[in-house]
Amino acid sequence: MTASTSDTLLLQPRADDHRIARLAALAIVLAVVDAGIPSPLPGIKPGLANIVTLLALETLGWRAAVWVSLLRILGAGLLLGSLLTPGFFLGLAGGVASLVGLGLTQAWPRRWFGPVSASLVAAFCHIGGQLLLARAWLIPSDNILYFVPAFALAALVTGLVNGAIASKLLEAFPCAPSTPSPSP
Amino acid sequence: MSRLILPGDWLVLLGGVLLTGWLGWHLWGQGQARSVTIRAGGQRVASLSLLHNRIVQVPGPLGVTVVEIAGGKARIKQDPSPRQYCVHQGWLSRSGQIAICLPNATSIELTGPNQPYDSLNF
Question: Nearest CA to CA, how far is B42 from chain A (Å)?
Fold first, then answer.
C-alpha cells in the first residue's frame, strides 16, 4: 500500500476526547505541584491530581477516569523525569488499584455515597497497590509493614480532603455527563 | 454541608478510621518487640534494632555465640553450649522473650515500647 499526501487519515476527536485531554492536562499540572510539596515519609503525598480523576469519574464516567489517571501518571512521569523508575511503577500500581476501587464504588447508590466515599476507597486502594508492589519487588521483607499505619493515616486524611474538594467543586460547577461541551 | 458529605460517606470514613486504628494497634502496639539486648557474662554487649537484618558474634567462655536478627525477629543461630537449649528456642518476636545460653554466659532479650512480662517461656 502506497501512502500519498492526499491519503491522510484524519482522526476526528470527539467532545469527550477534548474533555479528557483537558482534565488530564490539569491533572498533570497538579501532579507536578504535588511533587514539589515536601513530605515527611517517601510515598506520602497529598495526591491533588486525584481530585481531577474524581471530577472525571463523576462527570464523564469510569472509562474517562481511567484515561485521565493513566495519562496523568505517564505525563507527570515524563515531566518529572521519573518515567520507568521504581517510583513511577509504585505510582502506577497505586493508580491502577485506585481505578479498580473507583470502579467498585460506581456500583454504590449515588443517593448515599458521594465523591468522598470514592476518594477514600481510592486512597486506601492506592496505598494497598503501592505496598503490594513494594513488598513483592522493591523491599521483599515484612519490615515494610511497620510503615503501613502511617500510610493508612495519610490515605485517610488525603482521601477525605481530596474527596471534599472534589465534592465542593462538583457542587459549584455542576455539569451532567450528557451536557455537550461549549467549546470543540 | 450536608450535600458535601453524604451519609454513606460518613460510613466509609468510619470504616477508614477503624481500618487505620486496627492497623496501628496491630502493627505498632501489641508488645511487638522493637529491639534486642545482647548480654555476655552479665554485661550488656549491644542493644540493636530488629528492623535491620544482621548477624552478631558474641564471644563467651566456651566459644562464639552467633545471634541472627532478621525480619523483626531474633534468634541464637549457633552456640557452643552442649545442650543447645537457646538454639532450640528458635525465633523470638515478642517483647520480653529471652533466650539464654547459660554455659556460654550469653543471652538475648527482646525489648519493646511496653514490657508486659519479665520473661516468657513456652
Answer: 30
Pick A149's closest partner by Cβ from B5, B7, B27: B27
Helices (H), B38-101: 85-88
Task: For residues A20 and A64, give the distance between their C-alpha atoms in angstroms, rounded to a whole number.
Answer: 6
| pLDDT, tens digit, 9 for 90 and up, residues A65-91 | 999 999 999 999 999 999 999 999 999
Name the strand (E) or helix (H) holding A74.
Answer: helix A62-80
The answer as to whether A6 is a domain residue is no
Domain containing residue A100: CATH number: 1.10.1760.20
| Contact yes or no for A171 and B4 at CB 8 A | yes
Task: Give ipTM to 2 decimals.
Answer: 0.86
Residues of A in contact with B14 (CB under 8 A): none
Q: Say how many domains are in chain A.
A: 1
| Amino acid at the residue B1 | M
d(CA A149, CA A154): 9
